[in-house]
Structure formats: C-alpha cells, structure tokens
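User: Please fill in residues for this 271-position structure.
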C-alpha cells in the first residue's frame, strides 16, 4: 500500500545564489576565481597549489570548492571522505549550501546510500523539509542519537522515498547558479519547479523577469539583447538542465503516489 505522503511536502524554497557570493570577502571570491581559471586551463598543479593557499587563509568558499573537487575528481583523485571533510568545514564557516551538497552526496546510490545522513544534512541547508512524511520531530533535529533512533522506527520504503526526494531536490539546490549572462546583463527573475516524484518528472515554469537599471556608457547591443526572449529565458533553461541531471542521478523507488508533488521557487536577485 502506498505511503500517505503529503501532497505538498515543501511549499517553497527561496534560493538567492548571488546573495551568498556577495557575503563573501573579495579575497575569497578572487581566490575561488583563480582556482577555477587554472582548472579551465587544465593546469591542475597550479589549481591545487592555489586551492591550498586559499584553504590556508581560512576561506570557507575555498573549502566548498575543495569539497566539490574531491567529490567529482576535478584535478584531484575523487574521494568522498575528503569531500565530506571540506564540506563540513565550509558549513561550519557559514556556508549553508555545503549542507545541501552533503545531503545530495549521501543520498547518492553510488555511496550506499546513507539515507539517515542525507536527511540529517538536508535539515541544515538553506531550507529543510519540515512537513509531510519526510519530517522528523523538531525535538530530535539537533540530537544525532535521537535522530537515528527516530529513523529506525520508519518503514524502509518511507526512508527510501525520502532519500530519493532529498537527493533530487538538494542536488538542484546545490548546483543551481545565477546564469552568467543574466548577471552580466543585469537581469533578475524567478523560476518555480514542480517535482512529481511518483512520475520521476520535474516541471519548470518561468516566473517574472526584470532588468536592473544600468549606469554609465552602455552598449546598445546589450540593451537590445537583454530584452530578447533567449536572454529572459536563461533562468528557465539553466533550471531545466540542472533538474534533468538531478533526475538522472537518483533511481526512483516504488510506492510513491502519482499525484505527490513538491513545489520549489527559486528567486534570482542581485540586490
């Protein structure tokens, strides 16, 4: 018999990717940029040395980048344990998105999965699933022993379904970025995702888009291009690509009612 999963497990998740970047110091952002430039140039030796320098300076943004490099084997040998160490360091340094990467990683079937760890870290990101079947009592959220004891009372199918939902949603939360072109053109907007886990499908709906006032001498082509349909559709296109990758990453478990849905709203703002 299918589990009575709430029809709206998560009403809304507001993600402001650039706001996180604005909170970082200029030195941290420059250090991240320097590492990425060397990775793109396929100069892994220099990238790793630059990464070490940034980590020594104590920038949590570099710890987040190091976690991603170890998770995906970028310029270093893939090692999930090392990735976890750096993600935890980044989270302790004030970056909640590191918890989203941990939740998505632990939910990955390639690593077990570890559904308990995935659920634990999902509650420590920019938003947590605190309603519906995947919610845990508030009083056990901060106590690891009581948290694990609570999950041991769950039916295995319930845990598998929650692991799937968390894996997909938190992969998206971890990977979504402000589209570079939209940022360059001074565009803002929002996109709503409707995740139908029972159908293994995500619907992407573009919301409102707008443009910030540009100052100084502005190229006329920029003003024209940023009003174009492709420019305004950049948020939707990026979200579609990330959502499709997330769906491919996690196999759908049985027993999810077809009409179960999770609505997630992402807001992109430069303010």
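Assistant: Residues filled in for all 271 positions:
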């Amino acid at each position: 018999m299918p589990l009575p999963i709430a029809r709206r497990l998560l009403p809304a998740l507001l993600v402001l990717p650039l706001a996180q970047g604005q909170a970082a110091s200029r030195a941290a952002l420059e250090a991240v940029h320097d590492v990425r430039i060397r990775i793109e140039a396929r100069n892994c030796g220099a990238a790793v040395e630059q990464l070490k320098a940034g980590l020594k300076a104590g920038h949590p943004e570099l710890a987040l980048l190091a976690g991603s490099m170890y998770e995906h084997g970028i310029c270093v040998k893939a090692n999930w344990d090392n990735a976890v160490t750096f993600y935890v360091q980044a989270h302790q340094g004030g970056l909640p998105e590191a918890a989203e990467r941990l939740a998505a990683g632990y939910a990955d079937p390639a690593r077990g999965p570890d559904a308990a760890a995935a659920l634990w870290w999902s509650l420590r990101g920019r938003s947590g699933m605190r309603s519906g079947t995947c919610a845990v009592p508030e009083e056990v959220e901060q106590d690891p022993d009581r948290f694990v004891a609570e999950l041991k009372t769950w039916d295995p199918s319930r845990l598998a379904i929650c692991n799937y939902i968390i894996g997909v949603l938190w992969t998206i939360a971890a990977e979504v970025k402000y589209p570079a072109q939209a940022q360059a053109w001074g565009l803002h907007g929002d996109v709503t995702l409707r995740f139908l886990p029972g159908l293994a499908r995500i619907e992407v709906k573009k919301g409102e888009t707008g443009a910030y006032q540009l100052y100084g001498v502005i190229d006329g082509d920029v003003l024209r291009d940023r009003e174009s349909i492709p420019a305004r559709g950049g948020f939707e296109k990026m979200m579609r690509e990330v959502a499709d990758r997330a769906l491919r990453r996690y196999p759908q478990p049985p027993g999810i009612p077809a009409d179960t849905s999770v609505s997630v709203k992402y807001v992109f703002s430069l303010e």
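For context: The beta strands are 187-196, 201-211, 262-268.
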